[in-house]
User: Fold these one by one.
Assistant:
Number 1:
Amino acid sequence: MTTPSLPPDFEWGFATASYQIEGAVAEDGRGKSIWDTFCHLEPTRTKGANGDVACDHYHRYEEDLDLLVRYGAKAYRFSISWSRIIPLGGREDALNEKGIAFYNKLIDGLIDRGITPWATLYHWDLPQALHDRYGGWLNVDESQRDFERYARVCFERFGDRVKNWITFNEPWIQAIFGYSTGGNAPGRSSTNSQATEGDSATEPWTAGHSQIMSHARAVAAYNQDFRARQGGKIGISLNGDFYEPWDSQSPQDARAAERRMEFHIGWFANPIFLKKDYPDCMRQQLGDRLPTFTSSDFQILHKAETDFYGMNYYTSQYARRREEPPSTTDYFGNVEELQSNKEGLPVGEESGLHWLRSCPGMFRKHLTRVYRLYGKPIYITENGCPCPGEDEMTRKEAVDDPFRQRYFQTHLDAIAKSITEDGSVISGYFAWSLMDNLEWSDGYGPRFGVTFTDYDTLERTPKKSALLLREFITSRQ
Ligand code: PNW
């Protein structure tokens, strides 16, 4: 057996997202996003939390960039708030120079410190005005045109310095949590008693289609008008757990596990990376509730050659087939998800969040499966966890985070093994997250940061894992 190793030019750093850290929601001309609206609904659907102040990164970004230097990061993944750049969002709407100036300062601050910027264009914060104007992601034609214009503005204004672009963060979560369960903004659902509008049988599939075509339009624009001059890379970050059969002896459970991953990942990766229709199992189950790609859609998909697969990975699960036919609101592929298998073996060690168990062995299988299926270099664009009990800890207790350190170490080992033993190309790793921040509908409870955020004083304190990640990586190179 060879020694597990990471390539010498392995890219690594930490990740964040605009609404989770920036605050300053009404400053310098920023328009509202669907998350501003969602966090201020009554009764609350976000445990009373909102991003009005968050980590106040908008005012403290210099201090946060200095943390990256202290941690030795080579790269930093952040997201751009669409409604800071174009407050009303649309292709005929005005630009906001003050919002553009903020990201210019952030990008220049990174470059001055020798840190490579990785910019995500969309991390769930759709301009509220587009939702009001035409239903946002429910309007396939309008949304892709507006997204292309927004992407072009970012390439024009930032692309001389930003050479690494991610179009969408987790379109699955946007589509399913935003339009099926209603747990995330815009909170539409026909199965959630807190939601007043929505159709969980159809809307998530439309919202997914809009994001795929928006991604394709942005990449096609980059390839046609910017790539030659700017020489950057562009990809998309997909979430998706790995699934093993609940009953290891059952071929039906094995098929259920595969089906579950097709519903998670193939949904987006088939059209984007393979330029194929949605997976057969999705067509079979969803019929014409799943939109179709026209021949002109396929032309755009073909012009949208995407450079890398951004992988957000946190956990794995077991899949068990369902015997009854699926309901019209099922989005799992008629599969039950479990955290223990038939023998009662837990899928992994518990973290500080119910849905997240540490499963590095299945992470390696996941990496290898994704690389073999889609054939693109993989960048892990998110990976991390809250430690057990961390939400109740004082700062002094939380900075000592052996669970997180072990999580990083074991997941880096899985990456190294997938590279050296399975032949995958894995080119980078971003830990989620640079600092504790707004965990969406879970509010400020779960702490994913490598930096402790004191939400009363907004003081930042490095946890031990922050200072150790460099060593974890360089010792494997
Ligand atoms: C990702 N799940 O979301 C997001 O990209 C981040 O903004 C977020 O803070 C991070 O992971 C941690 O949650 C997810 O329930 C949210 O399986 C929920 C799930 C997965 C990913």
Number 2:
Amino acid sequence: MKILVVGGGGREHAIIRALKKSPDCTEIWCAPGNGGISYDATCKAIPATDVEAMVAFAKQEAFDYVVVAQDDPLALGMVDALAAAGIPAFGPDKAAARIEASKVFSKNLMKQYGIPTADYEVFEDPAKVMDYVRARGKYPVVIKADGLALGKGVLICQDEAEADAAVKEIMLDKKFGASGNRVVVEEFLTGPEVSVLSFCDGKTLKPMVSSMDHKRALDGDQGLNTGGMGTVAPNPYYTAEVADRCMKEIFLPTVEAMQKEGCPFKGCLYFGLMLTPDGPKVIEYNCRFGDPETQVVLPLLESDLLKIMLATTNGALDKTEVRFSAGAAACVILASGGYPLAYEKGKEITGLVNGQLPGSDAIVYHAGTAVQDGRLVTAGGRVLGVTATAADLPAALEKAYAAADSIHFDKLHRRSDIGARALAALKARE
Ligand code: AMP
Ligand code: GLY
């Protein structure tokens, strides 16, 4: 099969490397891709959000299957447009992608179907938000833009002044554009966070191995929120008992709710969960693989990813094996100094040969790299994700950090405590 992956970050690189293990995958392309992905796939410089150009290209190249990995093309209906052109694709259609693209949609869905989540109210009028926040008088309070905002539309406000500033930023200054026409005001929850990605074919759901993201820029979960500075899998807080509960109280009810709403979910459904003292609750849904969760989840997948993806499209997931290894994986992100704020690009990356580490079985996933005059250089905030798998988490972390330490570029920034909390949780259980 000739396959196209839409997107151009570390997640897409991980999907490509997993798909290439399938005997049915004979040719693989990526649009737009990036410098490092070009060692593994043929890259084509079409923006991921240009639905029309992407569909025309897919028709022209006669792809057998397209994997839409990024949220915004899914929200724009790329899967619908490909289907209309006769090309099957992995991912939800536009109606089902609302589960991520509109927080108002997902919160109302959870309320209607009794799926545990933080209590909330929806507002369209900025004045009414502050009346409500003041009358409620409980802090912190969480204020979220309704639509997609590159993961930056969630503001945790410690007092009235911060809430006022958040409302101004989202609803009046329109920092996230039309995504801020409505806001969700939400109760602040506490507890360990768990990411669970799952395959879904509209009626059957099969969860992947759980993972833990590290969203803050600096050690000790300090600094600004980022797209994710590292991940580990499995997540030690996600015990068999918690998994059982999530399946019954969250995963299956969500699949059923989407069916009943007339928008069955096909593709990868991502559950961002918080294990609160009152049980697991949904913090957010994503309609796609997580980044950098994918970089630790897919290396542990033992079954054929292409077969599973096709099964989600064809409604055959119940008959398709989804098996993970019993081991662990860790991913350390190497970022450009300054990220998530301003950073420099074009720094030469040394230590890699054809994008990988010679003599190491760690995998280097490329997020923001480019090839310039035959040299590999930095081209984004998150540059590389270095993943290692091993029999257990301590071994995976040691391998990932050893590999990360042999890669260099000017102003490289990474966290040195990825997995520390997971290790502490494992120790506490002994
Ligand atoms: P999101 O962009 O929706 O993943 O939110 C970013 C982060 O904000 C989450 O990973 C949580 O750590 C935090 N967060 C979101 N909603 C809540 C909430 N209701 N209570 C506490 N923390 C939250
Ligand atoms: N790592 C969080 C996300 O992909 O949304």
